[in-house]
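Please fill in the sequence for the structure shown.

STRUCTURE ENCODING:
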């Protein structure tokens, strides 16, 4: 193959598709980094703040602040409390009182996630899909309400695992 053949082949290549696929994979990696099954699950469990920024209230109590557009250039930032995040956001983004009030309301509405006792992924216990299915909580230990599962599939997997171990 000559260099002209290579150039011709490269000219015909749809780089937008490649870049879009890479972006998608990077976002899936972000989700995995934050212990989510998929990027879609991460996004649905997070509070959108505008300009691509999102805030996620993780199971361990920390808040993850991330940007879906600048994820490659900007690392996820973690905050121990909502108050700490609020102070940084007010200072960094020069928020005025109405914006601060709006942010406070968003923080209050952001769900505090849980970790699945089986797969280790974050999930929103108040997710509308769970409510529609009538899932208020699936626990490995129903009596003590401990070891919550993210899905019926994980609960079944745990039961099968216990049966195999005997």
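FILLED IN BY: designer on duty
SEQUENCE:
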């Amino acid at each position: 193959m000559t260099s002209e053949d290579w150039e011709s082949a490269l000219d015909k290549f749809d780089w937008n598709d490649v870049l879009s696929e890479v972006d998608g994979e990077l976002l899936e990696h972000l989700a995995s980094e934050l212990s989510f099954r998929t990027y879609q699950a991460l996004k649905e469990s997070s509070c959108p703040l505008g300009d691509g920024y999102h805030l996620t209230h993780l199971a361990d109590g920390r808040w993850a602040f991330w940007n879906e557009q600048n994820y490659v250039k900007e690392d996820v930032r973690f905050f121990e409390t909502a108050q700490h995040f609020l102070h940084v956001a007010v200072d960094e983004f020069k928020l005025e009182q109405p914006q601060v009030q709006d942010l406070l309301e968003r923080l209050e509405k952001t769900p505090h996630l849980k970790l699945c006792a089986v797969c280790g992924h974050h999930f929103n216990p108040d997710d509308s899909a769970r409510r529609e299915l009538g899932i208020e909580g699936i626990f490995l230990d129903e009596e003590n309400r401990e070891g919550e599962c993210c899905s019926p599939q994980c609960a079944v997997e745990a039961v099968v695992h216990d049966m195999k171990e005997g």
